[in-house]
From TrEMBL:
InterPro entries in the record: HNH, HNH_nuc, SRA_ScoMcrA
Pfam families the record matches: HNH, SRA_ScoMcrA
HNH nuclease domain: residues covered: 193-251
GO MF terms, alphabetically ordered: endonuclease activity; nucleic acid binding; zinc ion binding
SMART domains linked: HNHc (SM00507)
Name this protein carries in UniProt: HNH nuclease domain-containing protein
Organism of provenance: marine sediment metagenome
Length: 282
């Protein structure tokens, strides 16, 4: 089973038509494949489903159940037990009706409970799963990963690293451990590394409009990191999927009438910069 990060798929044809599983709802558990499909959408917020990346690099994903307290059964139980049952979590986001974009594979680090309204407006207990999402794309045309990925390092030294060291840190190898604390730290480390890398790569110039940063902050030229796939905005990602842009371009990427085409332009810019990086043309 293979999905390409960033690629769009027809949920009905490309996913359930090939692998089975429930064609409705946010969690789908095909019987004959070691996979669990998770779907997220902005419209879910209307029913208390608020999915988002957090500052620590972990993605919060709301469990299933539209009314009453959620139960640790069916899809919710499948997420919690995916490591034991050796099933891979695959996260998709809706981009339009019936079409989803693949965000990456994920690992559940745990969950917590919250009080949120159900679809009828009544307060109930919901499960919020903590996912460590791997959004590193497959190699396309040039090497996207280091031949020997470095290990997770110290947050204190990140700001002192060179451009290539920051890139390596963003691609750091996940720890081979069952320790939830270490896995959470790894997610946070990579999310911080990718932000610092994007800012260092831009060298104080917006990667969108090519204008100098609008002002100087205490940390240097002020630019904002923009992940090129909406749900990943603010979360761990790959250097090819992130740009450092001015606040105006950032708002344009999210809200302008030409947001889709502008994001495609930004994607091309990031790909070209990464290709140049790999060729030693920094």
């Amino acid at each position: 089973m293979h999905f390409e990060v960033g690629k769009e798929y027809s949920r009905k044809t490309d996913i359930h038509g090939r692998f089975g599983g429930q064609a409705q709802g946010g969690i789908s558990t095909p019987k004959n494949y070691p996979a669990i499909f998770l779907f997220t959408s902005e419209t879910g917020a209307q029913h208390g489903y608020r999915d988002e990346y957090r500052e620590d690099g972990v993605f919060w994903y709301t469990g299933e159940g539209q009314t009453g307290d959620m139960k640790m059964a069916s899809g919710n139980k499948a997420i919690m037990e995916h490591s034991r049952t050796q099933k891979t979590l695959h996260l998709f986001e809706y981009v339009r009706k019936a079409v989803v974009r693949y965000i990456g594979s994920a690992e559940c680090l745990g969950y917590h409970e919250e009080i949120r309204p159900d679809r009828e407006g009544s307060d109930r207990i919901v499960f919020v799963f903590h996912l460590d999402v791997d959004s590193v794309p497959d190699p396309v045309g040039h090497d996207l990963t280091t031949s020997d990925p470095p290990q997770i390092g110290s947050l204190k030294t990140l700001k002192l690293k060179s451009l290539d060291e920051l890139r390596n840190a963003a691609l750091a190898k996940k720890p081979n451990t069952q320790s939830t604390i270490e896995r959470r730290y790894a997610a946070f480390f990579r999310s911080q590394a990718i932000k610092l890398y994007a800012l260092a790569r831009a060298k104080g110039v917006c990667e969108g409009c090519k204008e100098p940063a609008p002002f100087q902050s205490k940390m240097g030229p002020y630019l904002e990191c923009h992940h090129l796939y909406r749900v990943a905005d603010g979360g761990p990602d790959h250097p090819e999927n992130v740009v450092a842009i001015c606040p105006n371009c950032h708002r344009r990427a999210h809200y302008a009438q030409d947001a889709i085409s502008f994001n495609k332009e930004l994607m091309n810019i990031a790909v070209q910069k990464e290709a140049s990086f790999q060729s030693g043309l920094k």
